[in-house]
Amino acid sequence: MNTWKMDRMDISPTSQVEPKPRAYVMGITGSPYLCDKAKEILKVADIIVGWQASISIVESLILDKMIFIQDPTQYREILKTATRYAKLHNQNIVLLVLDDPLVYSVPVQYFQETFEDFTLDFVPCSSRFQLAAAAAGVSLENTLMVVFSPDKNGGIDLDLLETNRTRMIQAFNQGSNVIISSDIEQSTEDIAEFLLSQKVDRTTQVLLCEELATPAEKLSWTTLGASASYNSHWNTIMVIPQKASQNEKVKSQIR
Amino acid sequence: MNTWKMDRMDISPTSQVEPKPRAYVMGITGSPYLCDKAKEILKVADIIVGWQASISIVESLILDKMIFIQDPTQYREILKTATRYAKLHNQNIVLLVLDDPLVYSVPVQYFQETFEDFTLDFVPCSSRFQLAAAAAGVSLENTLMVVFSPDKNGGIDLDLLETNRTRMIQAFNQGSNVIISSDIEQSTEDIAEFLLSQKVDRTTQVLLCEELATPAEKLSWTTLGASASYNSHWNTIMVIPQKASQNEKVKSQIR
Description:
The first copy, chain A, has helices at 36-44, 52-58, 75-88, 108-114, 128-136, 158-173, 188-197, 224-227, 244-251, and strands at residues 22-27, 47-51, 66-70, 93-97, 119-123, 143-147, 177-181, 205-210, 218-223, 236-240. With 255 residues, chain A is an alpha/beta fold. Chain A folds into 2 domains: 6-126, Tetrapyrrole methylase, N-terminal domain (Cobalt-precorrin-4 Transmethylase, domain 1); 129-251, Tetrapyrrole methylase, C-terminal domain (Methyltransferase, Cobalt-precorrin-4 Transmethylase, Domain 2), CATH 3.30.950. In chain A, the strands form 2 sheets. A 5-stranded parallel beta sheet of chain A has the order 3-2-4-1-5, with helices on both faces. Chain A has a 5-stranded mixed beta sheet with strand order 6-7-10-8-9, with helices on both faces. Chain A starts with 21 loop residues before the first strand and ends with a helix. Chains A and B meet through helix 1, helix 4, strand 5, helix 5 and helix 9 of A and helix 1, helix 4, strand 5, helix 5 and helix 9 of B. Chains A, B: This is Tetrapyrrole methylase domain-containing protein. Chains A, B: It comes from Dehalogenimonas etheniformans. Chains A, B: Residues 32-225 form the Tetrapyrrole methylase domain. Chains A, B: Pathway: Cofactor biosynthesis; adenosylcobalamin biosynthesis.
């Protein structure tokens, strides 16, 4: 499944004297949000690993690199293969992740263990939560960020589901804004249905941010009631600002 | 105090048919973290407002713009002057802020009121909290972010001080990482002294991130005890990761 470029295979190990090669876990939200630091690192990288969605974003910058493309069925194995290859050849490796790696819910320890034979750096980016907050005009200071993600086997993580639902309704009832990253296992429809069952007002305004920072990006203000029967893209960030008044004001300013 | 460029003063209002000119509140952490979207917006902007520190970061990109430089004694007045000028001439205006505007503690309403005659957009950036989290290798998911800032007169905001101190010690005792943005009114020495007075262990490791993302950037791991007598730069982010073990592991990987 991985489509690395064979013409790089015969390049001998680099002659760097550094005891360990470098590994970068780099956040990628979308090409408009790519920063100069990320571009510089990609320039000196030897090996790039990531899902097709993130590879596509930086494609023009990594034409001369060895690329390992992750897929849903074996993304961990592909990362391991790439890491082993980088270690063997003493090469620098970049793992692209589809959000700031320190914001998204993959445990930091996972990255630290994966790259234990490397000097590890994290490269932050504007996360989808920040883009959604910017679009809705809500501050992240009084906002709960909730990430739904599958369990190790790609199924519904029932513990996480329960924890996130409890945190979500508590925070909203306590006066915080809530920004939720949906997933295949927990769509914005599911989230809206749950909140309605917890007596949150049907007319509460929400901003649905579908496929943020991609060419297909779609931002729509709607009500919680309506979003319970709207089939949004699986990669959607849902913003539920606290005050309808603030929301109304912002609504008129949305591009 | 504002040094706008007089050669722009005689340019007639733009002929755009849009009913309102555009205003952008743009986060700027440092030149390595400037993204393409921010550069594109700066290109089409007419007027730029910001502190010298943020103006310097984008200086080469705004040579042909009218620039209003804010200073500590009258930054609100200078912003008002720039905004009035932009409205009068129907021009696009960019306010540079030294962190993601949706993360830092200026209320969103302040920006919305300031730019009520404009179509307002927020432009996020990697915040100093994300850079500090990346440097320390801690996830922001289980982290309390604390921002100390002066009151309207530039003095110590006693309410905020009390609130932040309570939140800080509670979160740390409950097992969260804490990342704190210090300020002139509340230095990292003050913060360390307070935490020591609350029985936090003197040997707790902390990462001091001075002048993050600037050429003078300095990252130092030290102990909470030692940081109580270390005179850090006023623009310092202090990271207090929860687990000493994780901390030790990360320490060896810091650049």
